[in-house]
Amino acid sequence: MLEQGKIDSRQAILLIISLVLPTAILTVPAITVKHAAQDAWISIIVATMAGLLIARLVTDLSLRFPGKTLFEYAEEILGRVPGKVVGFLYIWWFLHANALIMDEYASFLCSAHMPDTPVIVFFILGIAVAACAVRNGLEVLSRFNQLFLPLFLGLLLVVFILATKDMKVTRLLPVFDKGAIAILKGAATPASWLGEIVIFTMIIPFLNKPKEAYRVAALATLFTSFYLLVSILVAIMIFGPNVTGHWIFPTYNAVRVVSIANFLERMESIAVAVWMFGGFAKVGVFYYAAVLGSAQWLGLKDYRPLVAPVGVILVALAALCENIVELLDFLATAWPPYALSVFEVGMPLVLLIVALARGKGGEGT
Amino acid sequence: MIFLLIVSFIGIILLEVPGLVKKKMWRELVAFSVYLAIGMALSIPQVLGIKVPNPSKAIEALFKPLAELMK
What superkingdom does the record give (chain A) (predicted)? Predict the structure, then answer.
């Protein structure tokens, strides 16, 4: 066993929230609002349904193979060579997704806060901190997350409540103006974010009560969707759909306008603190999945020697991204089909069907 | 820049390799070397100003028919 740590259900819920939410409230609102305008909140509800189905699929698959991760049972289901191919593709996806997450963060910090700091500084610092956490194992990562995430989620909610002063519900009208196609297009991006729950397959084996996995996955998805929904509603009700769709970070701008009695203002520092932390946690989980996956894929006895080289690869991949416009364009158009059809639905579904057909794995609970 | 990069690579090697050799974990050592070589291959050209192909571009091209639907 490469990882001796065990985490409880509550830590797992918080870990999955960290896995999806931080970049979701950062980049998703702009993309969804661009497609669906004031109906973006309906898109999020559609995406939540899809997210719950993906969560169910992933949990069904994992529970058939207790104590094993995706990389181990892919080989058991498909045979040695095809299983290795699937494993390789997942390692690639974890690394690539992680590089994109780093890009989102670094470009957010660069464009909104520290324009004079070279972007590579954020990559190196972020990866260095995440590498320490990953080296110490899943337990350390999830305890850290359990300590800070509730605090930050609470703070974010308070900021949103303070922003109600500037909201107008009429900005959500007319409902269903853009039609069903636009709403579905708007739902693709948040669905591909919620589908990142695929990484739960790397965490389920280390739950101390695997039977609660369904509840964990569903609660985490609902919680994430709730925050995503609130952040989109806040942005639309403050600025209206046209302005929101043209901003890169609408939620950030929404937080900025909060001003109570000329005294309680500049709340964006709280939002930035939340995102700094969240970005670190999200990068950490993807990093952990890539490193543990690689170690299992190569049949190593210990995953820790791989932490530093994988960090180098991540920084180098992240540095390849040229600018934020290119990045957002990729995330809005190529990312949903790439992530959703192959890694989040396609491969888990194929694995589950083949496992059922060949009668591999236990009954599942 | 290139100097700093090479110093950090040497730092990573000094941090990991002696422990691996001492514990005779050869398989891990090979995996470590291959991963670090990939990392070097991606990072050294960037520092020297040589253009490295961006994998996101390849994925964009691969998923173009589906991506068109998202426009």
Answer: Bacteria
